[in-house]
Design brief:
Blueprint (H helix, E strand, L loop, with lengths): L1 H19 L4 H7 L4 H4 L1 H13 L3 H8 L1 H21 L3 H15 L2 H12 L5 H13 L1 H15 L4 H4 L2 H14 L14 H20 L9 H23 L13 H17 L1 H13 L4 H25 L5 H20 L7 H16 L2 H9 L7 H39 L12 H4 L7 H31 L3 H5 L13
Length: 495
Amino acid sequence: MWLLITCTLVTTLYATTITIANVSLPQIQGALSASPDQVAWVITSNLIATAVTIPLAGWISGRFGRRRAMIWGVAGFGAATLMCGLSTSLSELIFWRVLQSAFGSPLTPIAQSIVIDEFTGTKRGPALSIYSMGVGIPPTIAPLLGGYVSEEISWRWVFFILLPLAVVALVGTLTAIKPDPPREERPRLDWIGFLSLSIAVACIQLMLDRGERAEWFSSTEIIVECALAVLFGWIFLAHSLTRERPFLDPRLLLERNFALGIGIAAIFGMLFVTPMVLIPAMLQQLRHVPEFTVGLLLTARGAGTALSMLLMILFANSWNPRLLFLIGFGLHTYAGLEMARFDMNVPLSDVAWAMALQGFGVGWLWVPMSLVVFSNLDPRRSAEGAAMFHFVRSVASSYYISASIVVVFHSQKVSYTELVQWINPFNDRMRLPDVMGRWSAETTSGLAGIAGEVGRQATGIGYVNAFNLFLWTSLIVYPLIALIVWPPTGYRPRT
């Protein structure tokens, strides 16, 4: 049991860092005198570092052993977190955020592989349900905690409050994780595969983050990033298909359930974090809702996740994973329908309801994803399979968040252009007092107020379009669920 608690706590550490700093960005921006584009790198750098380093989990665990990797990972994470809180400039904070993610992101697949190997048979489902709480609940609780701490104390304590958890996790790792058996062969890192994948992933992320503001391919920077992504993506694919033991082996996808599970994990990654990014931004930008209130709304999502994960402890072994998928993604689709109906005057209770629905759906999905992905996989490659599982989920999540923000910004520009055409002295509607309200087209301040409201309405349309994208994305998963083979056949060596 202590082993399971330790693995869950180690996963909680990293999962918390993904969202805890999001609501503190305004305070960080003011304290470090940064522009909105610059302070966004506090989040972007973390996402890029995660995508680059999480596939290293398989090699790290094979090279140094899982226990040693977890000890150094937790210790390095704690040190980097401390330095994040002590940072005096934005560049310094971004540097330590990168190291924080580099030490922390491989811990999730390593911890998951330990749980999968140690808990077999009927014990695996309940164990994965408990472990999944460390992945699913902290990202929803963290914004509430981060918003309260940053408002009442300082943004630095968003990082400092993680240090006691890191110390407890380190003690648990030293006492509960068994030493790895000696290995005669220690794998070497496939540097060509690692570097080519890292460059391709980073270039795509940069292109998505900066493309809309840079006018896409009218910018030399975007053209260069796209060319590098294609070039190094091709190098990675060609190298991986011709090397016996590549950095990430695409031949793992030849196993049907593993490939389907990876595809489902990618769609889940797209849906998992996105509402936690879009909804706080929408409420703060359009309604000026305080950070702590936004955190309370996100807590509804955490409550839904906690409830469904508790149910999974009871039903994980007795229910077919395909049924669990249908329940979980069905709730995501329903939440998407609710969010697609949002407008700027949406009651906060409706927002809390949609978040609770989506959170309730999240809890039904972690366990069946893990069961399906590892159902027929060679146990000797569980760490490598876990690394690919979390890599695909993480990359899909970061890319989709960036794409959703692109939808918001692009829709905002298009909608503003369309709406502003109606603001002219020849529009009879503008002469109606009930239409103009407190604005006047006869004064400079009145015109500025009208322009601000048009911009606000255009931004609201952008968020609604992003929520519609969320809805349509949730529908892609159902054909994949139908193709899953269950009960599994178990691992069968290829002859």
